[in-house]
């Protein structure tokens, strides 16, 4: 049998299975299994406050891989990894060499993170593949669940390491040299991860992808406020981050005259107040945050000699984002005197728009299962940002309570969790029986 | 022999020894021994940058006690301690029960401190006692070198624990409950210190003192600017410290609208800018410092939910100090919105003046050895602040290069170090031969 013939045969078989399933009304995922698996993963790295601490390349993330791989193998799916520590779980297609369709998100969490951010998109994708496999669907090309390495960037900064390395935005070599607060290199943590799964097949780093769909909680209040269950994500707002170092001079708090001081923390206060007013107050769409700050020597009776901070700036309009970024650097420079400020740009990710056809498919799927939906711009960054330049990409949002994420009490309603996964199933279904012309 | 007769006989012997020494022109300390001991102690906790990290009740401080006690015993002096971890080294007097004369300072340093702050006053006092002992002087009452526990307060905050507990300003029980950043209690560190010296005699905590003299580097630029070698310290400027906690709410840096944020670090920036302008800019004499600050959760993409800071406020005029302290609390309260700020006063030490007769004695001693001197107000706090209410007290300052202290490159000229110790010797000499009427 030739490859083409095999593909045709597989497609025919898939179409038959799909038609049978459609006829029986069973094109839906297993709601209980999906929820149980989410809660099972929430126990890995569970925090006393009901959240999750499962940081990138940690023992907890390795434990979550074991769970994912066990579930994959029991469903007849094929797990694999790559040099960047991304986890792939494939529903094998007829043509194993053709670019696969990917769906997923990330398994790592913030230190005090919740039970849904990231892991939801991975478990939903696994659930879709498990459902398709259980129905005997063999798609024309591989459909692959993916968990990208280190999306959060809370242990190894900045984040999105797996998707950026996959997309060629950053080099593997550069990523491997990043260290966490304990001085541990990504290289060593990554090698330890791979050592924990010695028989796992290794994919090449970066391969052609036919399409990418990521389900995620919104991390904002808009769906809840509009009483919509499905967000059709139109794009991701642009983001820039900066490291700022303010250098002053240390001195004795009781003896050094105020006029002679070069107090780095006083300079920070001036700079931050001005940035919050001008950058943070620019318009209703801007997001300006100084989330991390360190003071040296940080002693009660010593005038601070150095302040190090990280700035996170986001805006949906790339022209505005660029303008604010330039202005931010200027303000740091002019307001630091008599100290000195140096600004290092880190992330520089412009706004992007997702694939129009996939957005339509998400909206239609939501209607098909009777869920209210709306278009929405993602204010948070996601791995999908880095897949969008490579292939048609899209995201599905579901609400989270009070818009809260990156917090232990982050919560999504089980009904919404299930609805999002069913939309993902229906968006992926055409790829599972491509070329057959029928719709789910 | 009755106690009174013993005292008279001892005084006569001391007077004879003193007169003989004076006749031979040898009323001076051993300059090389003093410097060598300072440099020997600087090797205990030495930092790569030439400074010292010898924090309170640390292994390094215990090592410095071993050195001090070895030197004391080899000079026939008597070491002892008390329940607060103060170290005493006595030149025994004829009447062991009479209130002794104390001279000293502290052995602990800042984490990145220098080779003179504190340790100079202790080693200078030891050098004076060693000189007196070597000349066969037996004073009427004990003359005692003291090293007060934890003056700096960098490990266990706030500092001056030993002198405050000795003076009854704080209870030993309260001090023992203070914890360092690793959660170690003073109680446990103190018990470990005492366990390292099982045979050391224990004095009662707090006993009557006849007089107290403390030699110290200036920690400011005034002596250097005026080209004076000896500062006759008139008093210590008043000091207040405050702990401030600013409570906001955490949120996602990319999704939470600016208008809905309660950003604790943004509130800090506003508060600090206003405090620096109004409090720090009040007049030329005020010193206003925010030296320590912590941000929670301190993650790049999370709006800060809590900022904790320590404020250090000093002024020589007690009325102004009280006014600024009140105003500071008001400003924190009104500027924190939409966050909340709570202010806890810690240290509240008004300005004090030192004993006039001792100030005259210091000036006369400086003239006698041909060293230029000037009156000076101490901008930094010292243990002498807590002895002043108990007995006639005074301080001798020597210059430090560029006014720098609490820094690894803190430096004092050997000639100034020796001059200060010779002034201390001459100020203590009348106590070594009290009632005999002759002058050094």
UniProtKB/TrEMBL annotation, chains A, B:
Keyword check for Metal-binding: yes
Taxonomic lineage from the root: Bacteria, Pseudomonadati, Pseudomonadota, Betaproteobacteria, Burkholderiales
One Pfam family it belongs to: Peptidase_M20
Domain of life of the organism encoding this protein: Bacteria
Record: residues binding Zn(2+) 1: 106, 117, 216
Species the sequence originates in: Variovorax gossypii
Cofactor notes: Binds 2 Zn(2+) ions per subunit.
Name the UniProt record assigns to this protein: Zn-dependent hydrolase
Family: Belongs to the peptidase M20 family.
């Amino acid at each position: 049998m030739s490859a083409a013939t095999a593909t045709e045969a597989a497609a025919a078989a898939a179409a038959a299975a799909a038609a049978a399933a459609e006829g029986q009304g069973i094109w839906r995922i297993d709601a209980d299994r999906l929820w149980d698996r989410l809660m099972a993963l929430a126990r890995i790295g569970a925090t006393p406050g009901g959240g999750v601490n499962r940081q990138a390349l940690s023992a907890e993330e390795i434990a979550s891989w074991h769970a994912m791989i066990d579930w994959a193998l029991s469903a007849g799916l094929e797990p694999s990894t790559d040099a960047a520590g991304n986890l792939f779980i494939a529903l094998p297609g007829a043509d194993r060499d053709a670019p696969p369709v990917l769906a997923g998100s990330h398994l790592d969490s913030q230190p005090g993170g919740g039970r849904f951010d990231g892991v939801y998109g991975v478990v939903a994708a696994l659930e879709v593949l498990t459902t398709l496999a259980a129905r005997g669907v063999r798609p024309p090309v591989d459909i692959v669940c993916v968990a990208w390495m280190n999306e959060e960037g809370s242990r190894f900064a900045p984040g999105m390491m797996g998707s950026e390395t996959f997309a060629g935005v950053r080099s593997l070599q550069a990523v491997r040299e990043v260290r966490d607060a304990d001085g541990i290199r990504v290289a060593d943590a990554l090698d330890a991860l791979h050592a924990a799964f010695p028989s796992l097949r290794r994919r090449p780093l970066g391969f052609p992808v036919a399409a990418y769909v990521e389900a995620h909680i919104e991390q904002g209040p808009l769906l809840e406020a509009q009483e919509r269950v499905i967000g059709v994500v139109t794009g991701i707002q642009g983001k820039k981050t900066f490291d700022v170092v303010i250098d002053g001079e240390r001195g004795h708090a009781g003896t050094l005259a105020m006029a002679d001081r070069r107090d780095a923390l006083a300079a920070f206060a001036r700079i931050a107040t001005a940035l919050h007013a001008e950058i943070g107050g620019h318009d209703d769409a801007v997001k300006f945050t100084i989330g991390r700050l360190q003071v040296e020597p940080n002693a009660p009776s010593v005038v601070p000699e150095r302040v190090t901070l990280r700035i996170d700036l986001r805006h949906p309009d790339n022209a505005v984002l660029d303008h604010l970024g330039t202005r931010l650097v200027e303000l740091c420079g002019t307001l630091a005197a008599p100290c000195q400020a140096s600004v290092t740009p880190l992330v520089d990710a412009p706004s992007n728009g997702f694939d129009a056809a996939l957005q339509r498919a998400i909206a239609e799927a939501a209607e098909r299962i009777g869920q209210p939906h709306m278009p929405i711009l993602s204010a948070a960054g996601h791995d999908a940002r880095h897949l969008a330049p490579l292939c048609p990409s899209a995201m599905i949002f579901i609400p989270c309570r009070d818009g809260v994420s990156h917090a232990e009490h982050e919560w999504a309603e089980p009904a919404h969790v299930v609805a999002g996964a069913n939309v993902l199933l229906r968006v992926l279904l055409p790829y599972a029986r491509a070329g057959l012309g029928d719709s789910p």
